[in-house]
Design a protein that fits this description.
14 helices, GMP Synthetase, Chain A, domain 3, Malonyl-CoA/methylmalonyl-CoA synthetase, EC 6.2.1.-, three-stranded parallel beta sheet, 13-stranded mixed beta sheet, ANL_N_sf, AMP-dep_synth/lig_dom, globular, ligase
Length: 464
């Protein structure tokens, strides 16, 4: 069925129950949310959005941004969210690639216009295999790839997580994540909607807002940066976390020291899980069972996981929540799947005999900074165009707040602050190097390939 219909079928019978709890104290009911979605879906159809058409959104997080996502599903179209930090040049690429029939940069205005329209009664029929969303993920060649996620894939993952993490109508989800990637948009939101539970809807993560909302919540999802910032705040005490039943972390590796400090402070163990844009959530530590620091737990029901190349190797997966392929990239899609249908994740790890999974690294030098993916090649392509730069190498190094920070090592000459400023004009802030180092040569192997592992070691203490 249409994914929206699945979500709406779990809304509470009393549509007056709260769906979103806003920071100003306003509560948005499930009935009001449902009405906004129906009227906005009608407006999309009035704008000649047809089933399978792309609707692209680059708008700040709000009630209305969530409505645009759900309305796009209801109208049978394909939702394409963009990071609000993307520059005009980056957005131009996404528009050219996805060819959306509608680009929304002000969700509040669009939904406001919709509220004067009659609602769309029935959702546009969709099959499990029909596209629901395209999520852009950076490519190692510098070209972003659009991961195609179907109604069936998102539904399967949402239902598995809802059960695995024990969600119910008694929960209140603390939602401080952005909604332009799978973590905030799909993982968090779907679990709450499938429960008919309210979400404390914060525009962004801020210590004060999170600590204010926490006593009324039961579950929090976040990136490791959220938890390191909470631990650095003296207001985050065992008492502040006493009402919470579950803290979940993902989108980047959780340091074992953060895991241990969090348990010492609160008496609770963070539940770490493993996912990616191409498959949403793949594994999770157990709700009832041992959560081990450094482990991402067990494959979700329905997910087949194997390690290619020995005891430690590249993780490959197959299952109902795996994406259909990359938008407009059939050759790249074919490269990323094995002959027997397993997706090659590019992450390196191992699996214990009991099925528990451990991630040991990333095969393609992906940097995860503050929960956001950065592929070095995209940054290097821009650096190499700059005056005075002969060659560049971009790596991630440890950072106490972001997990990893982007660092550029450049053969050539230049002025660090000016180069960073120039990069910032063309790249989102999370992709822009926090430091640029100038060298006479880069370390290479016998084949001439830059040895990024040596650069990571050399600059590992940059932010210590």
């Amino acid at each position: 069925m249409n994914l929206y219909d699945l979500l709406a079928s779990r809304f509470p019978a009393d549509r007056g129950a709260p769906a979103l709890l806003l920071p100003d104290g306003e509560a948005v009911s499930y009935g009001a949310l449902e009405d906004d979605v129906a009227r906005t879906a009608a407006l999309l159809i009035e704008y000649e959005v047809e089933p399978g058409d792309r609707v692209m959104l680059q708008s700040e997080k709000s009630l209305e941004a969530l409505v645009v996502y759900l309305a796009t599903l209801k109208a049978g179209a394909v939702f394409v969210p963009l990071n609000t930090a993307y520059t005009e040049a980056e957005v131009d690429y996404f528009i050219e690639d996805a060819q959306p029939v509608l680009f929304v940069e002000d969700a509040v205005e669009l939904v406001g216009d919709a509220r004067s329209r009659p609602p769309l009664a029935a959702s546009v029929a969709r099959e499990d295999d029909d596209l629901a969303s395209i999520i852009y993920t950076s490519g190692t060649t510098g070209r972003s790839k659009g991961a195609m996620l179907s109604h069936g894939a998102l539904a399967a993952n949402a239902l598995a997580l809802h059960q695995a993490w024990g969600f119910s109508e008694c929960d209140v989800l603390l939602h401080a994540l952005p909604i332009f990637h799978v973590h905030g948009l799909f993982v968090a939101t779907h679990c709450a909607l499938l429960s008919g539970a309210p979400m404390a809807w914060l525009a962004k993560y801020e210590d004060a807002a999170v600590l204010k909302a926490m006593p009324d919540c039961t579950v929090m999802m976040g990136v490791p940066t959220f938890y390191t910032r909470l631990l650095a705040n003296p207001g985050f005490t065992r008492g502040a976390a006493a009402h919470m039943r579950l803290f979940i972390s993902g989108s980047a590796p959780l340091l074992e020291s953060t895991f241990a400090e969090f348990e010492a402070r609160t008496g609770q163990r963070i539940l770490e899980r493993y996912g990616m844009s191409e498959a949403v959530i793949i594994t999770s530590n157990p709700l009832d069972g041992e959560r081990i620091a450094g482990s991402v737990g067990y494959p979700l029901p329905g997910v087949e996981l194997r390690i290619a190349g020995g005891e430690t190797g590249v993780i490959e997966i197959r299952g109902p929540s795996v994406f259909k392929g990359y938008w407009q990239m059939p050759e790249k899609t074919a490269e990323e799947f094995t002959e027997d249908g397993f997706f090659i994740t590019g992450d390196v790890g191992r699996q214990d005999p009991d099925g528990r999974v451990w991630i040991s690294g990333r095969a393609k030098d992906l940097i995860i900074s503050g929960g956001f993916n950065v592929y070095p090649k995209e940054v290097e392509l821009i650096l190499d165009e700059m005056d005075g730069v002969v060659e560049s190498a971009v790596v991630g190094v440890p950072h106490a707040d972001f997990g990893e920070a982007v660092v550029a090592v450049v053969i050539g000459r230049g002025e660090e602050a000016g180069m960073i400023a120039a990069l910032r004009e063309r790249l989102a802030a999370f992709k822009t190097p926090k430091r640029v180092f100038f060298v006479d040569e880069l370390p290479r192997n016998a084949m001439g390939k830059v040895q990024k592992n040596l650069l990571r070691e050399q600059y590992a203490a940059t932010f210590a």
